[in-house]
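Notes from hallway chat w/ T.B., transcribed later so I don't forget. T.B. wanted the structure written out for a chain they're using in a teaching module, and asked if we could keep both sequence and structure tokens in one place. Agreed to drop them here.
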Amino acid sequence: MLFVFVISRRKGNNKRPSEFIVEYEIDGRYEGINILN
């Protein structure tokens, strides 16, 4: 079973690109990835 959650957080300064957080759970194992664009 695969669950994927994508969360977008915007920084306080709108000039900076937003930060995307990808959280997923595979076979009861939870992991998170932060992606800075």
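Follow-up for T.B.: The radius of gyration is 12 Å. Might be a good example for the class.
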